[in-house]
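Consortium newsletter contribution from the modelling node. Members have asked for a concrete example of what our holo predictions look like. Here is one, prepared for the uracil complex that several groups have been discussing at recent meetings.
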Amino acid sequence: MREKTSEDRASGLATLACKAATCTSCRLSKGRTNVVFGMGVYNAELMIIGEGPGQREDEQGLPFVGRSGKLLDQLLAEIGLRREENVYIANVVKCRPPRNRDPRDDEIESCKSYLIGQLELINPKVVLTLGNFSSKLLLRTTIGITKLRGHAYPWWNRRLVPTFHPAAALRGSAQILDGMRYDFSLVRSVIEGTLEEDIPESAVLEESSVTESQGLDAEQMGLW
Ligand code: URA
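And here is the predicted structure:
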């Protein structure tokens, strides 16, 4: 198959964003102010995936614009990245769940094609999942983030680095922030091609987890 050109990727994302803007596939569409499709550059080597928009994000139509977003930008800057220049940020669901509850299975299913489309078009070298929810969902595991983080897992022919949600670092101890800094350093190593880490036995995921041999392919639609 022909490689996607920059134009293909930029126009593909614009088309998908237009479709999402009028999406009414699930109940979350009823309560939204704005669809929060995603932001960043189409040729990003890093794609960040959060859970779903909060109040600020819903108001502004952009992901991670509150206090969590400021911390995220700071951690990105520490590894030499900027969301406007070399990162793409999206969420599992594009509309705000009421009172910031976890997205439900049918909402995730309804929204799945947008995230898969974003992943295919951007084709990042590394995916960083923020928090328990998106990390467990994308790695198809029940292992919690505290145990899961600290590794760059092989995932659909790329790496996935699960880390804490920035909101947890804002609420929690310095240890959480230290952990995030370590995970961001793994992201940098993947981008630079200097990752040395092997996944240790103790971090081996459950049987259903994605393995290195699987390529990302919309036909499979089996990300989670
Ligand atoms: N938390 C998320 O998971 N996503 C956002 O966009 C904002 C806060």
